[in-house]
Specification:
Structural class: alpha+beta
Radius of gyration: 27 Å
Order of helices and strands: EHEEEEEEHEEEEEEH
Strand order of the largest sheet: 2-4-7-8-9-10
Number of helices: 3
Distance between the termini: 83 Å
Shape: elongated
CATH class: Alpha Beta
Strand content: 15-25%
């Protein structure tokens, strides 16, 4: 369990989770950005089926207080937190809000480098350093030469800076998992996967994970995302309706004030207009 983000933000009040955007809505560049993090999640669901003290998020916003604005999340392709409830109060999380998780920050994040470079090696690693994320993995199978990096790199936070870890798979003792690449004939195609490993370098999960299970998990994740977006849309529509009602009320009040000013210009007190009975 890592707890490094408990200080209240000095300038802004911390919002409630339902007030926060669940992700950055940035489309993924390729199917692997959906498949590989979900494969890691699906493997953990089987490997840690009897544990309820962990959470793995896929393309989900992490809201924290170490930046300039707690309303702006950082969104990794995947992340793992330990020492938190598997389901928050029995419900699915829309986002991961550190100040609602007793300050527990992710122990591991996964960044998959995109066709359009998004500063995975600089800006985002700096955010994770400030946040106190212990391990950061950067997977870059296509554009590693462009970026002057290796296709697979894992960094560990040591003395407030990230140090690249040697070897592969990389064993992460604080988490109890190793991470590495593995080429596997997957559903009729040979593909490079990211997989969890045990301390001896054996792969977790390959024989058990089926295409149907992974697709089912992807569909569940998509349903939760769509539901969260619908809730956000309903909240936006309600806010717009309230704004419109406020504008109508303001316009009516302004019209009433103009009428009162006009009556006063005629020497009539608008607060003491004669009633219908007074005119008979």
């Amino acid at each position: 369990m890592l707890i490094t983000d408990q200080q209240p933000h000095p300038l802004l009040p911390l919002p409630e989770p339902e007030e926060l955007i669940c992700s950055d809505d940035t489309p993924v560049d390729n199917e692997d950005q959906n498949l590989l993090p979900n494969l890691l999640l699906t493997t953990l669901l089987r490997l840690w089926a009897d544990r309820h003290d962990w959470f793995f998020g896929v393309d989900m916003g992490i809201f924290h207080t170490t930046g300039t604005n707690p309303n702006i999340p950082v969104v990794p392709d995947g992340f793992l937190s330990l020492g938190v409830d598997r389901r928050k109060e029995g419900n699915s999380r829309r986002s991961y809000v550190v100040w609602k998780e007793e300050g527990v920050v992710p122990a591991f994040v996964l960044e998959m480098v995109s066709y359009t470079a998004r500063n995975e090696y600089q800006d985002k690693l700096e955010i994770y350093r400030q946040l106190g994320v212990l391990y950061c993995a950067v997977y870059n199978p296509e554009f590693w030469q462009r970026d002057n990096h290796d296709p697979f790199e894992v960094y560990r936070l040591e003395n407030d800076r990230y140090v690249r870890q040697p070897g592969e798979p990389v064993w992460m003792p604080e988490i109890g998992l190793g991470l590495g690449r593995y080429r596997y004939e997957c559903w009729g195609l040979e593909q490079e996967l990211l997989m969890w490993f045990d301390p001896d370098g054996n792969i977790h999960g390959i024989p058990e994970v089926t295409r149907e299970e992974l697709l089912r998990e992807q569909r569940r994740t998509e349903r939760e995302r769509q539901r969260a977006e619908q809730e956000l849309q309903r909240a936006d529509e309600l806010e717009r309706a309230l704004d419109a009602e406020r504008r109508r009320a303001d316009a009516a009040e302004e019209q009433t004030q103009r009428l009162a000013d006009y009556l006063r210009s005629l020497g009539v007190d608008p607060d003491h207009l004669p009633s219908s009975d007074d005119r008979h």
